[in-house]
Specification:
The complex is a heterodimer of chains A (about 90) and B (about 500).
Chain A lengths: L1 E6 L8 H12 L5 E5 L2 E4 L3 H6 L7 E6 L2 H12 L8
Antiparallel strand pairs in A: 1-4, 2-3, 2-4
Helix pairs in contact in A: 1-3
Chain B lengths: L1 E4 L1 E4 L2 E8 L13 H17 L3 H14 L2 H14 L3 H17 L4 H18 L11 E5 L4 H5 L6 E6 L7 H9 L3 E3 L10 E5 L4 E4 L3 H22 L15 E6 L5 H6 L5 E5 L11 H15 L3 E5 L26 H7 L1 H14 L4 E6 L5 H14 L4 E7 L2 H5 L1 H4 L5 E4 L1 H8 L18 H17 L2 E4 L7 H9 L4 E5 L3 H9 L4
Parallel strand pairs in B: 3-4, 4-5, 5-6, 9-10, 9-16, 10-11, 11-12, 12-13, 13-14, 14-15, 15-16
Antiparallel strand pairs in B: 1-8, 2-6, 3-7, 7-8
The chains are: A alpha+beta (about 90), B alpha/beta (about 500).
């Protein structure tokens, strides 16, 4: 199990487009990928679950996955601040 | 007759019968199952996507993703099993709980997404409820969902009135791209088949006007149509004076939904893109801004696009920026002064612009420059942010900048003369104070002398100079500018053809 903690850098938070990009990236992998904020834990493959968190700039969240490749892809996406070009 | 003042969103006049639609029609048990209904909605969206521009298509793609969202599917299936209800009731209740959740968000961006969810729910549960208009009508509704707006046909929909929805909603952008007159924020009473007149420029709504007024309104609309028709033929004509001088007419733009209108107007690019629109509700991220600037530049290439950096303060306020109340806001922290204080906000915009500069012909315009030091500071910031492919220009709207034009010209690629503020600051006259309105005069010799200096300085130093204030749309002022040797102007989209007609009659 690989766990990674991030701080959200997007000015407007995890809104529709970044949530869609994250869900799309996560959905490319078979295993379960979860996103945790505080005590809440959600399915990172669901755009609705991600958007419902209403994450704002500066919020801290943790992603966990079994797959190294998934971890790398997600890390790249988040560190690029949800660039269009990375997907 | 009842008369209301609401918020004008898309300019234009319309007089027609009201057609009132409800967004939430009652739910009845549908044939089919969850999966086939979702698939049908998905396919409908795919068809819709083919007929709209990229921006709207992106909204529909997000809708498609939400249709097959794993969490929604899981919850709906659980509801069907646990509560032993039909799939449509289960789906409806799951969507309603998400809608309630999003409506409860404080952040306006997340709140607005509830509209998208209502739209998706309705599309799945009432696939045939989408608006069909057999006769010319004015659509009256609570709020427009993005997919409703996109399939509106201007042929039978003469105007739109909604109770909710602001200038920055998806619907406003789409209605504006279709050119349907649109008034929002309506709070009065209206009934099906009422005769309604709307003026989308000023947000006026008249319900059941008496016959004599009705005739006048019809005349106004006919005049509007006739003028449009007469101007159409100027689209394919060059913008040249009787003496053969070529004058470049560009359009002013406030939101990306206007790109199509600009292309249709025969304007040679955008002479002033006011970016304030993007900043009204929350500060857009670099990526969001980049996507918008890139799109505008790509769409209008090879014509240039002059993008003005954030110009707020004075009479233009934005809620999330803590601007200390000032006794004289027009002489206070506005535009560039504010940007240099809110430096991260400014840098984010400049970074987005630099990135977008690779996708077209970008001219960055800095408003409200007072001193040479400011220009040097902006150039330093730009240099730190990295290289791009753009020109840098400044607004000449403060007398100190106009007087220093020959020096400033050595440091920038172009000038844009903002006549509104330049008159106000040169004549020391408050534009909002009607008791001194007679001092506000473009033809004040002091103002003319200043502008003349600016144009000569630009010509001497070989840099471009354009005018983007209201004076450019005044026939006499325009003639004066052309005599002074001005070759580029920027005017509201609706004025482009009118101005071209005037230019073709000038013997200059």
């Amino acid at each position: 199990m690989k766990e990674m903690t991030f701080e959200l850098k997007n000015d407007t938070g995890l809104h529709a487009r970044p949530a869609a990009l994250l869900a799309k990236t996560a959905a490319k992998f078979k295993g379960k990928i979860t996103l945790k904020v505080g005590s809440k834990s959600t399915d990172a493959k669901s755009i609705m679950a991600l958007m419902s968190l209403g994450l704002k700039k500066g919020d801290i969240f943790t992603l966990s996955t079994e797959e190294d490749e998934a971890a790398m892809a997600i890390e790249k996406l988040i560190n690029s601040n949800f660039n269009h070009e990375t997907v | 007759m009842k008369q209301y003042k609401a918020l004008g969103i898309v300019p234009g006049l319309a007089l027609s019968r009201a057609k009132i639609t409800q967004n939430n029609s009652g739910i009845k048990t549908l044939e089919g199952d969850l999966n086939s209904s979702l698939q049908k909605a998905f396919d409908d969206l795919e068809i819709l996507k083919a007929g709209v521009n990229n921006e709207i298509a992106e909204v529909f793609s997000a809708h498609q993703m939400i249709l097959f969202d794993p969490e929604i599917l899981e919850k709906t299936n659980a509801e069907i099993l646990d509560k032993k209800v039909s799939w449509d009731l289960a789906y409806s209740s799951v969507m309603d709980s998400y809608i309630a959740q999003f409506e409860a968000f404080e952040d306006p961006y997340f709140k607005e997404r509830a509209t998208d969810l209502k739209d998706i729910k309705n599309r799945v549960l009432n696939p045939n409820s989408y608006l069909v208009f057999e006769n010319p009508s004015i659509l009256v509704t609570e709020e427009l969902t993005p997919s409703q707006t996109a399939i509106l046909n201007p042929k039978n929909i003469k105007g739109i009135i909604t109770r909710k929805g602001g200038k920055t909603s998806h619907s406003a952008i789409i209605a504006s791209s279709l050119g349907i007159p649109y008034v929002s924020g309506f709070e009065g009473e209206i009934f099906e088949d009422d005769l309604v007149f709307i003026n989308g420029q000023i947000g006026e709504i008249l319900i059941n006007p008496p016959d004599d007024l009705k005739e006048k309104l019809i005349e106004q609309i006919q005049e509007q149509e006739l003028e449009k028709l007469n101007l159409e033929k100027f689209k394919n004509l060059d913008s040249i004076t009787l003496k053969g001088e070529k004058i470049i007419i560009r359009a002013n733009m406030a939101n990306p939904g206007e790109i199509q209108q600009i292309k249709n107007s025969s304007a040679e690019g955008v002479g002033l893109f006011r970016t304030e629109f993007l900043f009204m509700e929350s500060a857009p991220s670099e990526e969001e801004q980049f996507q918008i600037y890139k799109k505008v530049l790509e769409e209008l290439n090879p014509h240039p696009v002059v993008i003005r950096t954030l110009d707020v303060g004075g009479d233009k306020k934005i809620p999330y920026l803590q601007i200390t109340p000032e006794d004289n806001p027009f002489l206070g922290n506005r535009a560039l002064r504010l940007c240099l204080r809110e430096i991260e906000l400014f840098k984010t915009q400049l970074r987005a612009l630099i990135r977008a500069s690779l996708f077209g012909k970008l001219k960055i315009l800095i408003p409200f420059v007072t001193t040479l030091e400011e220009v040097i500071e902006v150039k330093k910031i730009l240099a730190e942010l990295g290289g791009g492919n753009y020109q840098l220009g400044i607004m000449i709207e403060i007398p100190s900048a106009a007087l220093m034009a020959d020096i400033l010209a050595d440091h920038v690629d172009f000038f844009s003369i903002g006549t509104n503020d330049l008159i106000q600051y040169t004549c020391a006259v408050d534009r909002m104070n009607s008791s001194v309105a007679h001092y506000y005069n473009f033809f004040n010799p002091g103002v003319l002398k200043l502008i003349s200096m600016v144009i000569s300085a630009a010509k001497e130093k070989g840099i471009d100079v354009e005018v983007c204030g209201e004076a450019a749309t005044n026939k006499e002022a325009l003639a004066w500018f052309l005599k002074e040797g001005l070759k580029e102007i920027s005017v509201p989209i609706s004025e482009v053809l009118k101005i071209k007609k005037i230019i073709r009659d000038l013997n200059i």
